[in-house]
Amino acid sequence: MDIRNHSLQKTVRLHWYNVIDPVTKLLLALFLTLLSFQLTDLYFEVGLVLISLTLLLLSRLSVATLHAVSFSLFLIATMILIQGLFNSHNTHPLVTILSITLYQEGVLYALNMGTRILIIIFSIGFFMNTTTISENATYLESVGMPYNQVYLLMSVCYILPQIQQNLNKIQFAEKARGINLQRTLIQKLQSLLPIMIPLIIKTFDQSINRSITLQLRGFNSPERTIATPMYHYFKPKFNHYFLVFMIMILIGVKLWQIISNFL
Questions:
Q1: In sequence order, which residues have a C-beta less than 8 Å from that of residue 261 and are 6 or more positions away?
Q2: According to DSSP H, which parts of the chain are helical?
């Protein structure tokens, strides 16, 4: 399906995830995360991993998400090794490799923690890959959030991408000049330390300049026309109420379990 954006005079292709509003996507990621911590059975955890992975694969994949997944897999493998060897509840041997014995209790504990990490990364990756910062800002302002708070949220979201962009520019300029050649990991870390303070100062200076520019253009005026969302979302209020209700149930059950342990 194609929709016409009259403000930009171009056709935007509508995907299935475009009919889900940003708040619903964020609440869905929170619900899946809380549900993974509520469940203790490994089979249910694997099911949640498959659900969140399906959402991610059916959306747009980014390089940052792939890097996060690869790092998390390395972290999970490390957890399995450490917990399988040194967990305090280890009693039943699971497998022995080169006289190194991994125990069942530690491996299962590490797998449970690893599935929760994957669920968080997949669900948050689905939200980040299918929702832009401008779409978030437009939607939040259209539902009644004050523009000052919307701009504050946008500024916070733009800080890390700006730092990464400025860092890439500085490193590219250094490589073009033949200085600070980064061949090893230690050299990369050493090259980051001298530019951290100027990098942060430059990023905040860009945020201040953007704020001044928006004020001069009258974006904080109460008479400013509120931007309309680009997409027509499917029953956003119902989705919000339903997911908030389910999240409150999960939080209530978890609190009851914690309180019952002290009774």
A1: none
A2: 22-38, 42-57, 63-86, 104-130, 133-142, 147-177, 185-192, 196-216, 236-262
Q: Which residues of 1-26 are buried (b: 16+ CB within 10 A; e: fewer)?
A: eeeeeeeeeeeeeeeebbebbbbbbb
Distance CA 41, CA 39 (A): 6
**Nearest 5°: phi and psi at 225?**
-75, 130
Cα dist from 224 to 43, 145, 256, whole Å? 52, 14, 47
5 three-class SS: strand
Q: Give the whole-angstrom CA distance, residue 54 versus residue 60.
A: 11
Q: Are 122 and 114 in contact (CB under 8 A)?
A: no
SS3 40: coil
Give the relative orientation of helices 147-177 and 133-142 as an angle to the nearest 10 degrees. Answer: 170
Cβ(195)–Cβ(167) below 8 Å: yes
- What are the structure tokens assigned to 126, written together? 């689905």
Q: Where are the domains of the chain?
A: 12-131+234-262, 146-216
Tokens 């972290």, residue located: 75
- pTM score of the predicted model: 0.74
Convert the pLDDT of each residue in 96-122 to its tens digit: 888 888 899 999 999 999 999 999 999
Residue 119: closest CA among 68, 176, 62: 68
What are the pLDDT digits (tens) for 57-101? 888 777 878 888 888 999 999 999 999 999 888 888 888 888 888
